[in-house]
Amino acid sequence: MALIRTLIFTILTLAFAGTAQAGSSPMYFGLGIADYSAEGNDTTADGIFLNFGIDIGNYFAIEAVAANSDRYESTTTGDYAEIDYYAALYGRFNLRYDHLTLYLMAGYATLSATTSFYGTDDTYEDSGLTYAAGIDLYGTKNTAISVRYYDYIDEDSHITGINIGLNFYFDVPRINKRY
User: Fold this and answer.
1) What are phi and psi of 139, to 5 degrees?
2) Residue pLDDT, tens place only, 95-111
3) What is the dihedral of CA 141, 167, 101, 94, to 10 degrees?
């Protein structure tokens, strides 16, 4: 849990450090809600996420994501699971249009979850490759509604998520800066 707090503090500190140069900064940050599901579990969990990114040109960005979830419990078995933290670093490939951006992301993630299966409590920690796809819909020149699909997969687990959030871009005017 200390890792997630440190990551959130770092993301917010870096995000607000660029506001003094907001007219020329390539940075963005966002926050939102998430809906997670895990392979082999018949329920989903709600959570929150934060993201912080830096555009490196018009086609590529580097983005960090931190998330967690509430406890979700199986309606049939009583088993439960909770994502304590999820932290990832992505490369983000953008296709920008007039008032929207389509993107694909690939990266590396680490997560910790607390679980109880068949009466046995356990803490699960893992890391592995992850990917995501999404769309940013610009409402103003520096804000966008973001909808994305995450997929974290490795040898032991397969967790997916749908996230809806709001991104704040310091690179104003964002929607006029296209190909």
Assistant:
1) -95, -35
2) 988 888 899 999 999 88
3) 120
Residue 108 pLDDT? 93
Q: Say whether 77 sits in a helix, a strand or coil.
A: coil
pLDDT for position 91: 96
Identity of the residue numbered 97: Y
Q: What is the pTM of this model?
A: 0.75
**Which amino acid is located at 151 in the chain?**
D
Alpha-carbon distance of 45 to 40, in angstroms, equals 14
User: What's residue 170's pLDDT?
Assistant: 81
What residue segments make up the domains of the chain, in order of their start? 2-169
């983005």: which residue's tokens? 63
The yes/no answer on whether domain 2-169 falls in CATH 2.40.160.20 is yes
Backbone φ and ψ of 70, nearest 5°: -80, 175
Query: In degrees rounded to 5, what are phi and psi of residue 129?
Result: -75, 150
State whether the Cα torsion 61-58-97-175 is positive or negative. Answer: positive
CA distance linking residue 47 with residue 72, whole number of Å? 10
Q: Which residue ranges in the chain fall short of pLDDT 70?
A: 1-25, 38-44, 153-157, 171-179
Angle at 23 between CA 22 and CA 25, to 5 degrees: 60
